[in-house]
Amino acid sequence: MTQVLLRMLFTLLLTLGVGGTTASQDPPPEDPGRPAWAIGTHLATWSQGQIPDIQDNPELSLGPVLITTDAERDRLLNSQPLGPDNDLTQIAAVDLTASVLVVAGYHSCMEHGDVWTDGVVVWWDAQTAAGSEHISCAWAPFTVDVTEVPRSAFSDEIALVTPPWDH
Predict the structure, then answer these.
(1) Do 149 and 100 form a contact (C-beta atoms < 8 A)?
(2) How do beta strands 99-107 and 37-39 pair?
């Protein structure tokens, strides 16, 4: 009887893998990093569908640009084709001693741009809403978002970094 129990225990241990090492075939989960959240107040969006010449505006480029001074903001507000047909009062009213402006240009199909932080660094990124990843657009118009971000969101230096997942 003892031999039968020992054989059963031995067989059970071999079956469960206790007698040897077993390696998982799945890679360890990727470290998602620190949690991040969107920050700032969205002030304006302009797109090529509304302003056909927007991509020719020298003050607007692909990617994000920080506006930290009155002179930089004045260049943006006075640039064409933004001109007098657009309500720029919210942008003109921003107190640049307390906030900065993030002006970001991108080609938008289903994307939406936001300013993000993880509490340490700040970045801008255009992301596609969940469920819209596989939509194919015939045209992705050049789009510009303007977001007011409090200076307090930045640590020592007022600067945007590359999104963590682009490293």
Answers:
(1) yes
(2) unpaired
Distance CA 166, CA 21 (A): 36
- Distance CA(37)–CA(54), nearest Å, equals 29
Mean pLDDT of the region 138-153: 92
Task: Give the angle 12-28-131 at the CA atoms, nearest 5°.
Answer: 115
pLDDT (tens digit, 9 = 90+) per residue, 29-52?
A: 565 567 889 999 999 988 888 888
**9 three-class SS:** helix
Q: 40 near 149, Cβ under 8 Å?
A: yes
SS (H, E, C) 13-74: HHHHCCCCCCCCCCCCCCCCCCCCEEECEEEEEEECCCCCCHHHCCCCCEEEEEECCHHHHH
Q: Is 164 exposed, middle or buried (0-12, 13-18, 19+ CB in 10 A)?
A: middle
Q: Per-residue pLDDT tens for 85-138?
A: 677 899 999 999 999 999 999 988 878 899 999 988 999 998 877 777 777 777
